[in-house]
């Protein structure tokens, strides 16, 4: 077994399913101790029973978009450790699908609240712990929608471009503390969330789901879906000492997505 992340302590928001959970398992397999939160109690309970969790995984229920709940999550972490090696700002929702003039303000606000402002809550509390550690890594989950325009998903695109802006800025603010800040931009991940997104787009366009699915893949040079493991492994690399001089980078893991329409 490779132990690339041995003794590293890692915090992951929305870590109990999807990309977050696959990344949690990758970190545990590589020897790390992981602190996750998730708004979904069922997923949290399931994570606690996983064989890999054995004294190395600490899972807590928390809504990432509520500052007080995030602060309570950190209070629990601080009882176990004062220093951390990495924070993965993974939380993010797909937001609504539709042309801008038809979208509701509350959906716009909720998308920005969860995808951008919650990252601020976590980073603000993790930075002192990373400084205490004398360095470390922050990884922000953006998206190919943080690099291209994304018709019918304007709040999501706005939120993911914002994540890129924060990443570039934080990397500059924190470089002198040996804290590296990078963003990962996943392409279309095979899984539940994209099933929901594709269903919503097919419904909006009044076309079959299969048609939308094929369209998504055709937007990548490699004609491929992306898998949660691809993102988990990139996180593992960015946290590891192999990436000790990689900072301020916006890393696409997307089979080279060249359009998103
Ligand atoms: N899935 C994709 O195709 C894709 C593509 C590009 C970028 N991303 C980004 O990657 C990240 C993870 O995506 P995913 O597909 O695994 O997500 P997902 O929709 O599968 O959700 C993962 C977890 O987030 C939790 N969650 C949702 N709202 C929360 C909140 N307010 N507080 C705490 N937990 C909350 C859910 O309970 C769930 O366990 C997101 O930032 C997403 O925007 C995903």
Tell me about this structure.
The protein is of the alpha/beta class and 261 residues long. The chain has one domain: NAD(P)-binding Rossmann-like Domain (Rossmann fold, 3-Layer(aba) Sandwich). Helices cover 45% and strands 15% of the residues. The chain has eight helices and seven strands, in the order βαβαβαβαβαβαααβ. The protein has helices at residues 18-29, 41-49, 67-78, 105-132, 154-174, 192-205, 209-218, 228-239, and strands at 9-13, 33-38, 57-61, 86-89, 136-141, 179-186, 250-253. A seven-stranded parallel sheet has the order 3-2-1-4-5-6-7, with helices on both faces. α2 (41-49) links the parallel β2 and β3 (57-61). α3 (67-78) packs parallel to α4. The longest helix has 28 residues, at 105-132. It is globular and about 50 Å long. It starts with 8 loop residues before the first strand and ends in an 8-residue tail after the last strand. The model has no long low-confidence stretch (mean pLDDT 97). Bound molecules: nicotinamide-adenine-dinucleotide. Nicotinamide-adenine-dinucleotide (NAD) binds next to α1 and α6.
What is the gist of this entry?
The protein has one domain: 3-Layer(aba) Sandwich (Rossmann fold), CATH 3.40.50.
Task: Please give the structural blueprint.
Layout (H helix, E strand, L loop, with lengths): L8 E5 L4 H12 L3 E6 L2 H9 L7 E5 L5 H12 L7 E4 L15 H28 L3 E6 L12 H21 L4 E8 L5 H14 L3 H10 L9 H12 L10 E4 L8
Parallel strand pairs: 1-2, 1-4, 2-3, 4-5, 5-6, 6-7
Helix pairs in contact: 1-8, 3-4, 4-5, 6-7
The structure holds nicotinamide-adenine-dinucleotide.
């Amino acid at each position: 077994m490779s132990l690339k992340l041995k003794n590293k302590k890692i915090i992951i928001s929305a870590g109990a399913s999807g990309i977050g959970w696959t990344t949690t398992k990758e970190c545990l397999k590589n020897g790390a101790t992981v602190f996750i939160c998730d708004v979904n109690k069922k997923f949290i309970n399931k994570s606690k029973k996983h064989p890999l969790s054995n004294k190395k995984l600490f899972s807590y229920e928390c809504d990432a978009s509520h500052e007080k709940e995030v602060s309570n999550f950190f209070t629990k972490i601080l009882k176990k450790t004062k220093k951390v090696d990495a924070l993965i700002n993974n939380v993010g929702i797909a937001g609504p699908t539709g042309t801008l003039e038809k979208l509701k303000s509350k959906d716009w606000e909720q998308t920005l609240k969860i995808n951008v402002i919650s990252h601020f809550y976590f980073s603000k509390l993790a930075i002192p712990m990373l400084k205490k550690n004398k360095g470390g890594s922050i990884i922000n989950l953006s998206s190919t929608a943080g690099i291209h325009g994304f018709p019918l998903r304007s709040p999501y695109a706005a939120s993911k471009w914002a994540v890129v802006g924060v990443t570039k800025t934080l990397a500059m603010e924190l470089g002198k503390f040996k804290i590296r800040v990078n963003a990962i931009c996943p392409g279309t991940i095979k899984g539940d969330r994209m099933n929901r997104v594709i269903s919503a787009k097919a419904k909006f366009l009044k076309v079959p789901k299969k048609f939308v699915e094929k369209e998504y893949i055709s937007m990548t040079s490699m004609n491929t879906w992306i898998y949660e493991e691809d993102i988990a492994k990139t996180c593992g690399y960015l946290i590891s000492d192999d990436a000790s001089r990689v900072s301020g980078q916006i890393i696409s893991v997307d089979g080279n997505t060249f359009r998103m329409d």
